[in-house]
Amino acid sequence: MAAFDSISKNKIASGSSAEELKHFNALASSWWDVNGPQRILHKLNLIRMDFIQETIRDHLKLNEGITNSDDEVYIPPYNIDLLPEGVRDTIVREQCARREEILALKKMKVLDIGCGGGILSESMARLSFVESVKGIDLSDEVIVAANLHKAKDPMLKHKLQYKLQSIEEIPKKEKFDVVTLFELLEHVDYPSKVLTEAMSKLKPNGWLFLSTINRDFVSWFTTILMGEHILGIVPVGTHTLSKYINHVEIKNWIASNSEYELVASRGSIYIPSYGWKFTNNENVGNYFMAIRKK
Amino acid sequence: MFRTPFPTTVKLGLLRLKNTTPQLQDVVIVGGGPAGLSVLAALKNSSKTAHLSCKLVEGGDLNKIRNFDETAYSNRIISLTNKSMRFMQKIGSWKHLNLDRMQFYDKVAAYDSSSHEALIEFTNDAINYDPMGAMCEVVNIQKSLIARIDELDQSDCLVDNVKVEAIEESTSEIDWPIVKLSNGDAYQTRLLIGADGYNSPVRRYAGIESRGWAYDSFGTVGVLKLASDQYNLVSLQRFLSSGPLAILPLPEDDATFVWSAKTEVASILKSITNDKIFVALINAALRLEETDLKYALNKLQVNPDDTSVIEDLQWRIELFEPNEQLDIPVVIGVQPGSRASFPLKMSHADSYVGPRVALIGDAAHTIHPLAGQGLNMGQADVASLVAAIETGIDRGLDIGSTLVLEPYFAQCFPYNHALLGVCDKLHKIFSNDVYPIILVRSFGMRFMNSLTPIKDFMIKTLSV
């Protein structure tokens, strides 16, 4: 319970109260009730994880370090769908098996910035190729709630730690294989500063995954008009349109920086009673990005 | 001599410990039937889920199943669809099936007792060489799955000869259900899978309602000997007003039958102790008109051992003019002790999933056996549930979460619901001797038999 310490000193242990603990428990259970107020976020987490898995798996070097050409996995230099079904299935199966082999040897360190109640942090910590996850947030309340929920799953005990910390407070030498910045940039005053700080935490070949919202009519309609005022999914005032950042703005900003490259982008849309779905247009509404340090 | 007190104390201490701290598991499966064993084999076969710690709890003795080959045919025989067979190949249990005890068939013929022209036949697609289905003992399927689990070195997951005493909610920080066993052990599990049949204790624990009705009918089953081995590519079904009678092929000249009949008729069938009378009655039920059959049944109701019925039925069968389109097998014997009966019912659970609970197979649905879909629906459940768990693992979710399990329910429920409905309606249409309904249904059967697209659709639904 190391993560508990930073808060417990001033919050829980110091004279506090069953009542306070009750409040945190209520917060944790409302945050974690998949049918409760955060359902849309739980659903969003599904495609966040799909985006992360897909990007990491697609960019594994399947034949790296293999000297004997017989051991190489065949990667056709053309569209695999052109091949007969049986051949295609065999190739796909071999490639999948190799991906699992490579991933099984990885021990990734993950930093989840703005971890909230830990929805993404817990998911990352359960992945077999992740060694440890550090979730940070600036709200002590959510950190306590996240820790309370973490204790419910024994497999998270040694893999996941939460800290009440800002990015700047992370020691300069501490670097990560994966850094995540989900639904965060649209809430901060200086997004470029946050992004720069987050990218500086990457190891070489490390991944930064982020998602945020384009500054356009569709976003205003879905996140502010529908989300806040009509359907009331999130509290009024959660979003400010002027803080939204267009995909192309981040894209150009990354392009001007020779140390990093933008590897993948996907648009996403929420369909009531279905959930979140990827779209092919990252320039409208919500979007995901994967940035890699060279 | 002096040391004896110590071990005793330690032992007692351990026993007490065993009772109080449940062992943590990722998955506990209740029930070692085909559905339960399939889900364990499938989880252990998948590279994504093989690492999950699993236990399967079964009240019976699984070693008896491991050695079933030495015995005569069991009377629990089902029809496997191609889809189920492909799934068994995928999870690696297919190669462990004893194929010598199975029979593939490539034609299904159904005819109506009230009108001989009303005949419908389904034949397999000659180009693909896919069979229509295969008759297989349930115990053969169970054995193949256990063999696969043994082969994967996962025999430790099987906990047999042990009953579930109670399923309780946890009061501790870890909110997983606790399964208490008759041997004193207890498991606390992330995901509890109920493969525990119609009266599913897991379903009751989850508070999931199951709705349906009993059919006032019983299925009578048994193993038959036929006069020749030329029938074994056909699965034959005759719709009698008391319910359908199916003759389903086994290797060589063996066959199995399922006679679904109203309770009144079923109890007559059950009271017949002389197998010769039963054989005569089955031959009659495959051929004669309802009035002739009723006459014999009435006589047997008065005296179940009335052997004069045999001669009487024989005489009537000789007068019978067979439909040239249809070759009806001659039954010459019934395997002693193989006859049994069970009540027929339809039921469907309101949901297959709840927090940390999933229901599969008969725990989720029971169906009228007339289309031979029961076990196959269970196999489809398993395939879908395991796929949902694989996706959940990829997404780093807690596999007991409804976020993981809901897609399984969303995928399987509508299909199962439609199938349950169709079989229920078929039962109601055919278990009937109201003249207008007979007219409409025999017209419907002839009409369907001449319409290739509809038949192809039905073949795809029922066999592929």
UniProtKB/TrEMBL annotation, chain A:
Pfam families found in the cross-reference section: Methyltransf_23
Main location: mitochondrion
GO CC field: extrinsic component of mitochondrial inner membrane
Residues bound to S-adenosyl-L-methionine: 48, 114, 137, 182
Cofactor(s) needed for function: Mg(2+)
InterPro entries (UniProt xref): SAM-dependent_MTases_sf, UbiG_MeTrfase
Residues reported in the UniProt entry to bind Mg(2+): 183, 186-187
Pathway recorded for this protein: Cofactor biosynthesis; ubiquinone biosynthesis
Subunit (UniProt): Component of a multi-subunit COQ enzyme complex, composed of at least COQ3, COQ4, COQ5, COQ6, COQ7 and COQ9.
Protein name listed in UniProt: Ubiquinone biosynthesis O-methyltransferase, mitochondrial
Protein encoded by which gene: COQ3
From TrEMBL, chain B:
InterPro entries named among the record's database cross-references: FAD-bd (IPR002938), FAD/NAD-bd_sf (IPR036188), Ubi_Hdrlase_CS (IPR018168), UbiH/COQ6 (IPR010971), UbiH/COQ6_monooxygenase (IPR051205), UbQ_mOase_COQ6 (IPR000689)
Keywords: FAD, Flavoprotein, Membrane, Mitochondrion, Mitochondrion inner membrane, Monooxygenase, Oxidoreductase, Ubiquinone, Ubiquinone biosynthesis
Membrane topology, record value: Peripheral membrane protein
UniProt-listed Pfam families: FAD_binding_3 (PF01494)
GO molecular function term, any single one: 4-hydroxy-3-all-trans-polyprenylbenzoate oxygenase activity
Metabolic or biological pathway: Cofactor biosynthesis; ubiquinone biosynthesis
One GO term describing the cellular component: extrinsic component of mitochondrial inner membrane
Purpose: FAD-dependent monooxygenase required for two non-consecutive steps during ubiquinone biosynthesis. Required for the C5-ring hydroxylation during ubiquinone biosynthesis by catalyzing the hydroxylation of 4-hydroxy-3-(all-trans-polyprenyl)benzoic acid to 3,4-dihydroxy-5-(all-trans-polyprenyl)benzoic acid. Also acts downstream of coq4, for the C1-hydroxylation during ubiquinone biosynthesis by catalyzing the hydroxylation of 2-methoxy-6-(all-trans-polyprenyl)phenol to 2-methoxy-6-(all-trans-polyprenyl)benzene-1,4-diol.
Protein name (record): Ubiquinone biosynthesis monooxygenase COQ6, mitochondrial
Provenance organism: Candida tenuis (strain ATCC 10573 / BCRC 21748 / CBS 615 / JCM 9827 / NBRC 10315 / NRRL Y-1498 / VKM Y-70)
Gene this protein is translated from: COQ6
